[in-house]
Amino acid sequence: MSTKSISHLVTTKRIRSLSFVPRPAIAL
Fold first, then answer.
1. What domain of life does the native source organism fall in (predicted)?
2. Do 16 and 25 contact (CB within 8 A), yes or no?
3. What is the DSSP string of 1-28?
4. Mean pLDDT over each residue of the chain, to the nearest integer
């Protein structure tokens, strides 16, 4: 797994945890 993939998974997890807040990262 590349660092980028891991970072993406972590970001996705954070977005899910903070799903009540719209995040531009979702578009990424």
1. Eukaryota
2. no
3. --HHHHHHHHHHHHHHHTTTS--GGGT-
4. 73
